[in-house]
Amino acid sequence: MLGKLTWDAIPFDQPIPLISGAVVILAALGVLVWVIAKGWLPYLWKEWITSVDHKHIGIMYVLLGLLMLVRGFIDAIMMRAQQALAFHAQGYLPPEHYDQVFSAHGTIMVLFAAMPLVIGIMNFVVPLQLGVRDVAFPTLNSVSFWLTATGALLVNMSLIVGEFARTGWLPYPPLSELRYSPGVGVDYYLWAVQISGVGTLLTGINFVTTILKMRAPGMTYFRMPMFCWTALASCLLILAAFPVLTATLAMLTLDRYLGFHFFTNEAGGNAMMFMNLIWAWGHPEVYILVLPAFGIYSEVISTFSGKPLFGYRSMVAATLFICIVSFCVWLHHFFTMGAGGDVNAVFGIATSIIAVGTGVKMYNWLFTMYGGRIRFTTPMLWSLGFMTTFITGGMTGVLLAVPPADFLLHNSMFLVAHFHHVIVGGVVFAVLAGITYWWPKAFGYRLEEFWGKAAFWFALAGFYVTFVPLYVVGILGMTRRLQHYDVAEWRPWLMISAAGILVLIAGAICQMVQLSVSFLRRNELRDTTGDPWDGRSLEWATASPPPVFNFAVLPQVQDAEAFWDVKRRAREMHGSGSEPHYEALEMPRNSPTGFVCAFFATIIGFALVWHIWWLMIVGLVGAYATFVVFAWRDVPEYVIPAEEVARLDRANRIARQEAPYGASAI
Amino acid sequence: MTIDANGHDPEYQDDDRGGASDEHSARLGTYVLGFALAVLLTIASFWVAKTDLIYGPGIPVALATLAVAQMGIHLVFFLHLTTAPDNTNNVLALAFGLLIVGLVVFGSVWIMAHLNHNLMPMQQLMQMQR
Amino acid sequence: MSAAGTTITISDPYRLARGPNLARGHGGGGPATKRVIVGYGFWLFLLSDIVIFACLFATYTVLANATAGGPRARDIFDLNHVAIETACLLASSFFCGLATIAVARRNQILIQAALIATGLLGLAFILLEASEFAALYARGDGPTRSAFLTGFFTLVGCHGVHVTAGLLWLGTMMAQFFAKGFRPDIGRRFLCFSMFWHFLDIVWVAIFSLVYLVGTRL
Hints:
The complex is a heterotrimer of chains A (666), B (130) and C (218). Chain A has 666 residues and is mainly alpha-helical.
């Protein structure tokens, strides 16, 4: 009846997951009860859960990403603490639990923290920067978000019901095959990643279509803001890479569920094909994350230097170059597998070449700042922190790209330090810069600067104290994922690293304090102009927060190169001059399709993990019914009357005319 | 892509100008010609596979060529993919997709061939040495 | 610039794209028509699907010789069977083209007839493929027999699953044309469906050439 699900699945004998799971469930229930008691449920349902507005979906993505970032960070703290304690000892985490922690940390950080954060910012910003009213497929956008949330839910469910994979964040066979991983951990991984992967693929389709086919009149390709270019490149990579992930994990699933022989040891299966395919997704994946991050830095650095981005076209070229070449380097993740000198040389050289594109970008940012009047705001600090950190991480990456060096450093702590330098320094800093930068646009008030800067300095210092020692232990020969060790010379470095994580915790606390303090002081920090930073692209041409239709009149983009001028003109049209002629607008209707899809996807995923076949069929039938109901719907849009558009826009125009431009800029 | 000027019902034409596979470009002649070419190429492929008239090792190459030709026929005659300006983005996206497909397929096969060569199972190695 | 003269609303954000020169060249023509947007989005989906098939092709190629003592390609393929399957699918695609013409001419009877022919031929293809699979199973040469058969069943089966999903979609399309007539949104869906169906043909060309035909000669 319930497949493999029994009471044994609940870890009554393991206090750590049991207690943390119970706390999370209680907190979630508490929030739910609070929301119901306050009578906010209808509001939540109408304005958020069923919303197809790209701004609301973007904010929900970021919220999901932040929650998962905290979860992944807790895993990280547990690992650093374990390695600090487990010298000639077992530490406090038994091996089977420690293995789940590092697997969950990688999976969550890459797929359920970084991806939602990056996609969330894309969701919020791209249509505004393009000067349009929504993405190409608004309902699909909602489906994407809710499928991602389903994946995150399944991963976290594994904490309490059953177990998570013990195979690392990429489940390498034959370890991940049924014979060596008979539990449900790998199955949780497979279905969670598969379901959220579908959501990500849909996002890729949605945004490539939006960026290529829906820009404000006059916005030619070379008038698009840099963030839109990087979002385009990133989404093209999603389109090309995520199907590879889907196919590869589907093969592993077939091996585990139906006894196929893709990657098994028996009957001619070839485990190396898995490494090959998974990294054909895995390497582009890191560029999927980091390209939009580069876009965020470009926007931030240009705005706070008060200058147009230096070398716009070379930046576009470098972005597209990285987009293509990122598909030519995947073998550098397994130089040591034994493909031989010829193959290793080709991929090693390609890997070194891809650094050139990033180098071009670094110089462009430097020259953007050169001669500018730099304002050292929190987003700018994150950007500067990124430039130093990413260069260090990039250099160690080029070192690892040399096959003979890689043979020494492969799978060592050196590698761990390298990819944290590029991903934390590249993506996490970018996301925090982006959140601070676009927060006033999303909520109508700026974030408090003092606590933001404190968060930055603690995070930067904590980051270096945590990860530089890991380079050292890597060179001293420590491999990654060790549950305990008995080499005395590693010990001091791992203690420093554990101290570093304390500083990082301080940074995280400052970040939370910043959000709370800003919320409490939101009236002082209010942005009435819609342009708190003296920005340079179209999102600053509308109100903060923008009305549901973004722009009462689609802006006419006229200038060849400077977004500055673009914005001035858009502003003239909106803020001053004669009032435009308002017309009634049609906006897409809210739809519970996404939420209902995710509900059935959760059921299907859970049923498949536990082999509860009847429940899976129920889920499939429900999903198909949802599809038919959605397809049968007759009126997908509603009309906002011209008077309502005019009323909303006039309020914004008055506020703009009262405040001189850039007055609230720091 | 031809944009049909001999007006169909305006109500239905509301917003459907341009784009890939615009049904206004649908002509019976196009489909008949495409179908005929596809059938011919299919017959040619099956003939090549069965014949002894062609140099054996050349057959896979001949089959691959015929397959690519037939896919092209399908793209042009059934999916109406042309190089007209409206179709630029479609063609570019296809080119990007094909580049990725090429990289993944040939890259994988190349890598795995080298791996198999370097890490041949002992049994097979012994057989080869015999 | 007079704002009033160039006002665009979402009820017709497409007017500009119809202007003579704006839509050409550098993409400064404003948002495209809904039909272009939907068609392009689906085109991108098909490209991502091609990448999935590419992975399956690559895996099949890598595993093709890993027969583990089981049958090889030339032992199990029946080219006459494949020829009939191919004929069904090609003819089905042709009828789908006829349906496209019927939609352009707004001829309900012709649409339903063409779609029924499309569907029946597709169904025949699926049944033929199922019989081939069943025969292999019956001989003990199922996908669990060897890595080669695993790759073969997955690649060809994945195409079969796509055709089956296409048949479900086709039924929905027929019902929608019947119940709702020629609304623009139904027309856009049909555009996607026809792209999907022709795309499956292209994948099948690759399968019969590179799996079946080359397989029997190796």
